[in-house]
Amino acid sequence: MMKIDFSGLDPSLPVKGNAEDLDDEILAAPSFKLPVTVDFDGFQKAAVQMVKPAKGTTTLAFIFKHGVMVAADSRASMGGYICKALLILNLYKINLYLAASQSVKKIIEINPYMLGTMAGGAADCQFWHRNLGIKCRLHELANKRRISVAGASKLLANILYSYRGMGLSVGTMIAGYDESGAGLYYVDSEGGRLKGTRFSVGSGSPYAYGVLDSGYSFDLSVEDAAELARRAIYHATFRDGASGGVASVYHVGPGGWKKLSGDDVGEMHYSYYPIEPTTVEQEMADVRIA
Amino acid sequence: MARYDRAITVFSPDGHLFQVEYALEAVRKGNAAVGVRGSDTIVLAVEKKSTPKLQDSRSVRKIVNLDNHIALACAGLKADARVLINRARIECQSYRLTIEDPVTVEYITRYIAGLQQKYTQSGGVRPFGLSTLIIGFDPHTGTPALYQTDPSGTFSSWKANATGRNSNSIREFLEKNYTETSGQETVKLAIRALLEVVESGGKNIEVAVMTKEQGLRQLEEAEIDAIVADIEAEKAAAEAAKKAPATKES
């Protein structure tokens, strides 16, 4: 079985043969067995391609005066992979996404003061966020203080980097509140990690950015910021077929996170654009057939 | 007894790990080291054996930096110390890289102690023959800390402690004379404690002072001489004060 060699990532190599088992825990880099395939590179490419279209979602987060606002839709689609069988029904030649679920929790509660958003492979995001929650708790127990948002996002980014190229699909934002104030980091499965004040991730993100960027101000009140986040998600779900369901909004403040709202985007549409009763031009009357 | 000290992982029938105890013996033969924690200053003072004339004394520094805010002094096998210090320095930087925060004193002490313990429970290796005194300021709260580790891998926090040669007498002195001090008073207390067992003079003592703002500062020989002279003067004055009332009464 081939085993990937990560020794380049080791901080230092073992000093002598005997010390190997001593250094294992301290210096061992992650590794696992690779599948037996004829063409491993081709297999990798196919695996990544299969997962790529599935970042069908809209998530966003931004830092403002009172902490961090985090919002997401709740539709999970399975990309074009399953829909190949439904092509016969595709009369208008638009991408039809089979909505697998309208009620996926895309905002993951890592711990009472940190949230993670899900975009990409649902299983990957759920598992690695849970794993990050474990690591954060262990850090708290070992060091008698909470881990910072910077540290938590770095732990996740390092793990995702070590699996780079193996087909993980994760586009997440880690939002939290620690000693140095509100923290927001974007972390993805390519191994990237960015610190920022406004992020949106997913297929609906261009639409969400439009609304978010034009309405953003650092001095928003909590209610206004929540409404901005909700509206941005709504507009993204309106235009992006892979986003929809329920727009959830969370606020992370000094006391931890709190879920503010979860509104169905269909109902939101009618609250933003209520149906005008049309003026009746001509009433149709019953005509008696003589 | 002789059969139970070959392999390190073997307990003796009465529950001893002889290799660890022999390592403690090695520590007891090493140079004396004192650490004193004040409210805003922490001091490490180490006995310096007379330097040969041709040796460059700067290459045998006994008090070293592990990071900007953490320093270490030790008693015992200096070569073992070098290995442990290198691993601790790497760990300090690795922590900074992954957590984006400096280590706390307690964390790095726990790491060093964990390393020392590992070598008491593995095949084919011997324990590190040194005890360390680790000082530093907490990067978040700014509180000063002094920790000690030993070859068995235990560690604990102290207000003042000594290790190495005659550490028991130094500790007794500290127990009698320790008070909460700050600034120069802490330095004086540390040097007074070390002078209990070491010949007085700037060339026999190495002193380093750590403050939150300036980090670690090694004192010059001249500075140490001046403080030693101060201490001697105070001692003489105290002796004279003791004698004077007696003569008056008589």
TrEMBL record, chain A:
Q: What GO cellular component is one of the record's annotations? A: proteasome core complex
Q: Which GO terms describe its biological process?
A: proteolysis involved in protein catabolic process
- Annotated EC: 3.4.25.1
Pfam families under this entry? Proteasome
Q: Which chemical reaction does it catalyze?
A: Cleavage of peptide bonds with very broad specificity
Q: Which domain of life is it from?
A: Eukaryota
Its annotated compartments are: Nucleus
Which Gene3D superfamilies does this one have?
Glutamine Phosphoribosylpyrophosphate, subunit 1, domain 1 (3.60.20.10)
The protein's GO terms of the molecular function aspect are: threonine-type endopeptidase activity
What is the top EC class of this enzyme, as a single word? Answer: hydrolase
Query: Does this entry carry the keyword Transmembrane?
Result: no
Enumerate the UniProt keywords alphabetically: Cytoplasm, Hydrolase, Nucleus, Protease, Proteasome, Threonine protease, Zymogen
Q: What does this protein do?
A: The proteasome is a multicatalytic proteinase complex which is characterized by its ability to cleave peptides with Arg, Phe, Tyr, Leu, and Glu adjacent to the leaving group at neutral or slightly basic pH. The proteasome has an ATP-dependent proteolytic activity.
This chain belongs to the protein called proteasome endopeptidase complex
Q: Which organism is it from?
A: Salvia splendens (Scarlet sage)
From TrEMBL, chain B:
Note whether Cytoplasm occurs among the keywords: yes
| Record-linked InterPro entries | Ntn_hydrolases_N, Proteasome_alpha, Proteasome_alpha-type, Proteasome_asu_N, Proteasome_sua/b
Residue span(s) of domain Proteasome alpha-type subunits: 4-26
Keyword Iron attributed: no
Cell compartments where the protein resides: Cytoplasm; Nucleus
Task: List GO terms (cellular component aspect).
Answer: cytoplasm; nucleus; proteasome core complex, alpha-subunit complex
Known partners and oligomeric status: The 20S proteasome core is composed of 28 subunits that are arranged in four stacked rings, resulting in a barrel-shaped structure. The two end rings are each formed by seven alpha subunits, and the two central rings are each formed by seven beta subunits.
Q: Which family does it belong to?
A: Belongs to the peptidase T1A family.
Name-wise, this protein is Proteasome subunit alpha type
